[in-house]
């Protein structure tokens, strides 16, 4: 049990936000989270900002940017976090650790990214910095190429999984079609996702366009409070567990199809929380590519290695299944602004657990799992959240 709770949250629209400055995006979502928690800026003890950047924006050193528009936060300690695509969860953990260390009662966590100011090929070059440069920097297609290679290896070991990947894409786009924050609010259907076409070409290996998350801008924010104080606040969502596990960076030093770091993170988190997968009402998982979600079924223990497709064939992860996965639409439909992603996943889970998820809502949601990863299962974060 973690002695901290989510007590406020906010989420921007995800998408191509051409007319929104990063500084404004950051401040607007921060102020909305403070308002949601019913706190003034002066009541915040520290600020934890997650952004990957890596060249998306010229402006770096973002930790104090929020002061420009929320002057009440001035002179508070503020720190920037980065852990590849798990950057948002790294910021969440930084906030939790401040509370657990007794240094804070309330912390503000912000995740944001502005990716679309670069052309798509340049975005791919920036993201490929999250690979092991000595061995993987030359992979064509950026991180799509990395996961295309993983998908091809999975197909070779376990057989063609095109049907399974299309089911994941169709499921997540169907779920995302009712998410008001999603970059892509469109139900493409299974047939479109399954078949190669002019609008759905192959991108890397067996991965088609519908297998790949989009280049997005966006932000999300959380207020995290000490558990005893949270009990006096209008709403709270508790952390039953918050676990981080890192693995080797080079793919050559591990089995890229096993996501062993994710396995360890899930095992530890469920153990700390004292629950099993069967107890969870939903999971928000890191579907940067559909092959990632497929392997994550196996890493979390829903299926044995190579049998993730059975989970889909049985409908277990559908919105009305035994364990709905990505009812928000996931990264696939919601979008993947790198630094915002982990924070966004926690916001989506908190909305479910407080019954405020609108058309995304899973009935009677009590426990939610969040899995956010950086790289190909290098930095792995699992949270188990509960309704309070």
Automatic annotation (TrEMBL):
SUPFAM superfamilies assigned to the protein according to its UniProt record, in alphabetical order: Thiolase-like (SSF53901)
Domain of life assignment: Bacteria
Position of the signal peptide: none
Gene Ontology MF annotations: acetyl-CoA C-acyltransferase activity
Domain Thiolase C-terminal: 250-386
UniProt domain Thiolase N-terminal: residue ranges: 13-183
Record-linked InterPro entries: Thiolase, Thiolase-like, Thiolase_C_2, Thiolase_N
PANTHER family assigned: ACETYL-COA C-ACETYLTRANSFERASE (PTHR42870), NON-SPECIFIC LIPID-TRANSFER PROTEIN-LIKE 2 (PTHR42870:SF1)
Protein name: Acetyl-CoA acetyltransferase
Source species taxonomy: Bacteria, Pseudomonadati, Pseudomonadota, Betaproteobacteria, Burkholderiales
């Amino acid at each position: 049990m973690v002695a901290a709770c989510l007590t406020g949250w906010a989420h921007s629209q995800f998408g191509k936000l051409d007319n929104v400055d990063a500084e404004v995006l950051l401040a607007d979502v921060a102020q909305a989270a403070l308002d949601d928690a019913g706190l003034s800026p002066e009541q915040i003890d520290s600020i934890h900002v997650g952004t990957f950047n890596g060249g998306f924006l010229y402006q770096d050193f973002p930790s104090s940017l929020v002061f420009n528009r929320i002057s009440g936060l001035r002179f508070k300690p503020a720190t920037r976090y980065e852990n590849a695509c798990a950057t948002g969860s790294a910021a969440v953990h930084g906030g939790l650790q401040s509370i657990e260390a007794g240094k804070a009662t309330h912390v503000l966590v912000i995740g944001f990214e502005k990716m679309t100011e670069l052309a798509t090929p340049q975005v791919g070059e920036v993201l490929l910095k999250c690979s092991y440069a000595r061995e993987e920097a030359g992979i064509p297609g950026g991180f799509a190429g990395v996961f295309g290679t993983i998908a091809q290896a999975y197909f070779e070991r376990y057989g063609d999984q095109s049907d399974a990947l299309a089911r994941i894409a169709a499921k997540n786009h169907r779920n995302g079609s009712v998410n008001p924050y999603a970059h892509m609010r469109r139900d493409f259907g299974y047939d479109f996702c399954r078949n190669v076409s002019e609008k759905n070409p192959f991108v890397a290996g067996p991965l088609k366009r519908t297998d790949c998350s989009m280049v997005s801008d966006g932000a999300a924010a959380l207020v995290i409070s000490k558990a005893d104080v949270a009990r006096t606040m209008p709403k709270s969502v508790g952390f039953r567990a918050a676990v981080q596990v890192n693995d080797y960076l080079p793919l050559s030093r591990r089995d890229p199809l096993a996501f062993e770091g994710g396995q360890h993170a899930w095992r530890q988190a469920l153990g700390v929380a004292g629950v099993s997968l069967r107890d969870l009402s939903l999971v928000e998982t890191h579907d940067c590519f559909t092959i990632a979600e497929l392997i994550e079924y196996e890493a979390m223990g829903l299926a044995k290695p190579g049998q993730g497709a059975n989970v889909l064939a049985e409908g277990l992860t559908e919105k009305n299944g035994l364990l709905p996965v990505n009812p928000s639409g996931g990264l696939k439909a919601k979008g993947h602004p790198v630094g915002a992603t982990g924070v966004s996943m926690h916001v989506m889970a908190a909305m479910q657990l407080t019954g405020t998820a609108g058309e995304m809502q899973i009935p009677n949601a009590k426990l939610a799992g969040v899995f956010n990863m950086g790289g190909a299962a290098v930095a792995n974060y699992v949270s188990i959240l509960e309704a309070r």
